Amino acid sequence: MRQELGEVLRAYGGKNERVVVLDADVSSSTMTKLFQEAYPDRFFNVGIAEAGMVDTAVGLALGGWIPFVSAFAAMLCYRAFEQIRTCVAYNRVPVKLLAGYAGVSDYKDGPTHHSVFDLAAMRAMPNMTVVTAADGGEMKELIPAVAEYDGPVYLRVSRADIPYTDMSGEPIAIGKGRIIENGADITLIAHGVPLYRTLQAREILAERRVDARVVEMHTLKPLDAELVRRCARETRGVVTVEEHSVIGGLYGAVAETLIGETAVPVVPVGIRDSFTCTGPSPESLWDAVGLAPQAIADAGLAALEKAKRRS
Amino acid sequence: MPHYTSDELRDLEEKARSLRITCLEMIHRRGAGHPGGSLSAAEIVAALYFRKLRVDPKRPEDPDRDRFVLSKGHASALLYAALAERGFFPREDLEAWGELDCHLQGHPERLKTPGVDMTTGVLGHGVNIGAGLAMAGRLDGRSYRTYVLLGDGECQGGIVWEGAMTAAKYRLDRLTVIVDYNDVQLDGFVHEIMPLEPFVRKWEAFGFAVLEIDGHNMRQVLEALDEVENIHDRPAAIMAHTVKGKGVSFMESRSVWHGKAPDAAELELALKELAKGAGGGRE
Predict the structure, then answer these.
(1) In a domain, A170, yes or no
(2) CB-CB: which of B63, B135, B162 is closest to A44?
(3) Which of A29, A224, A306, B245 is most buried, most CB within 10 Å of its CB?
(4) B50 is a domain residue
(5) Is residue B1 in some structural domain?
């Protein structure tokens, strides 16, 4: 969805002249070069220096600009973590962190370029808002929302092209999840790109006569806790689906919300506390790390099974 | 270039001496703080806050104000003393430094303390932040200048040089970096822990115009700050040779005083020395 990112950033840059973009020598990959071509005066390529780039963006924000800082998520989150903590979050400036090539979407480069516990790190940070686009269509909605959101935002962007899901029923609002498909038996909550696979899992479950609700939770923090609680009340089990470690991401956020409030089982689908590997395509890697539609459907059945045993 | 009369110089030296006294009293009262690097930068901060910086305590958020980033945030006592003296908040606030309900944090925090332009404390951030501020001002066509006070030890961290490259690439002539080169850091001498020499040539090689001064000589500090305003094609670095703990003989050049508070007897001794006017090196 990088092409969409580049295009929407360029389009939004024409509407909002306070937006500036910084990139760390990956603008041809992240496609922020489209912004550069349109607005060269508002684009800064600072070279392979993610930590310094974040701080420079902070200076621009202090001077009244809205900087989008673009790099691969693995370098932006992990290398510039202290800069993000001290100068962006603690200092509470509206720096927008464009974490590109996120998750395992940079399948060719392998684990050094995968970000599978960035959400946990960012979610634990006070003042930080954490958002992931599920597909390029949602990216188009998210860029203006993120730019105009008051405060720092970590926006995770996949390298992969994702089939679009129709989300036109409800306009995007940071901090609000969307019910994409209704269902009465269980709830599948997806964060980011596994949404389309979660919808495929819903079809597999339908063949087993399980009616699954699908929630698209683009904002991990602040989590739409009300929606999570509602789904736990209205269905018998919850499955969390994320292209991320099962530690500290969506599973953590949902479990933290529900624990002690309800007996509804929560079953995670995600990466099991391990580093990943290189693969021939994002799809094959998602399958390999546990995000196959069948695996999501199996988690749904497991949740129902647990619910049965508890009742 | 303005000529400074001996009265003007004397007044500013007196300000520097007064800042030193306030710093030591603050650090003693709190039982915590960083005297060495506060005393070494007293002339620099006095020259900035009482002569050079275009700031207005009544309008601390004025978008056209000059910016000051204390990259060596552990010298917070010095910044707080200057801001209070300049009228950004009442002097009494200094007495509550570090208390739970006090806006003065251990290290400077922009969101809590009026007049603090950037939250600092973790070393190495200043040059990049300053570069960003200078870019922001240029994009908006504003004429403010950005000053960053760096410790020498923090230049051991690579991120300082990322900022230097950015400032040089974009020819940020309204950015001035001042290095408080006192050659002492927490664990010992800078030249032993991780040598920085040839330090001036490093900044030059990174694209800065470099001025080398005695950082305790008020005339030299002021003239360097004037001179950088005449450099229009690149950022400037003022390499200020200083003495850690300047003005208090038992603190001078001793790393143990990097982050240790003086007890009552030590404070009394220090204040006696400062009362005699030790410190500001007149030509």
Answers:
(1) no
(2) B135
(3) B245
(4) yes
(5) no
Q: Are residues A6 and A67 in the same domain?
A: yes
A41, A56, A92 ranked by CB distance to B132: nearest: A56
- A49, A52, A65: residue with CB nearest B139: A65
- Contacts with B107 from chain A: Cβ below 8 Å: none
Which residues of chain A have a CB within 8 Å of the CB of B110?
A: 62, 91
Rounded to the nearest angstrom, the minimum Cα separation between A20 and chain B is 10
**With bands split at pLDDT 50, 70 and 90, how would you rate the model's confidence at B277?**
low
Query: Residue A72 pairs with which residues in a beta bridge?
Result: A100
Q: Of all helices (H) and strands (E), which one includes residue B221? A: helix B218-227
CATH number for position A292: 3.40.50.920
Domain extent for B71: 6-275
Kindly state whether residues A121 and A199 are assigned to the same domain: no
Nearest CA in chain B to A82: B122
**Residue-wise pLDDT tens for chain A (311 aa)?**
999 999 999 999 999 999 999 999 999 999 999 999 999 999 999 999 999 999 999 999 999 999 999 999 999 999 999 999 999 999 999 999 999 999 999 999 999 999 999 999 999 999 999 999 999 999 999 999 999 999 999 999 999 999 999 999 899 999 999 999 999 999 999 999 999 999 999 999 999 999 999 999 999 999 999 999 999 999 999 999 999 999 999 999 999 999 999 999 999 999 999 999 999 999 999 999 999 999 999 999 999 999 999 87
Task: Please tell me the total count of domains within chain B.
Answer: 1
The answer to whether the CB of A207 falls within 8 A of the CB of A257 is no
Residue A82 belongs to domain with CATH number: 3.40.50.970
Report d(CA A234, CA A183) in Å as an integer.
9
Is the pLDDT assigned to residue B1 strictly greater than 90? no
Total domain count, chain A = 2
A162: in domain: no
Q: Is residue B283 part of a domain?
A: no
CB A80 within 8 Å of CB A22: no
Q: Is A178 helix (H, G, I), strand (E, B) or coil?
A: strand
Residues A7 and A114 in one domain: yes
Decide if A167 is inside a domain.
no
- On whether residue A30 sits in a domain, the answer given is yes
Q: Which residue range is the domain that position A91 belongs to? A: 2-156
- The answer to whether residues A119 and A219 belong to one domain is no
Name the residue type at position A61: A
C-alpha distances out from residue B269 to A4, A210, B74, B249, Å: 68, 82, 23, 10
Q: What Rg, from alpha-carbon coordinates, does chain B have?
A: 17
A222 with A272, same domain? yes
pTM over 0.90: yes
Task: Assign residue B90 the CATH number of its domain.
Answer: 3.40.50.970
A-chain residue closest to B131, CA distance: A56
Terminal-residue alpha carbon distance, chain A = 43
| Residue of chain B whose Cα is closest to the Cα of A63 | B136
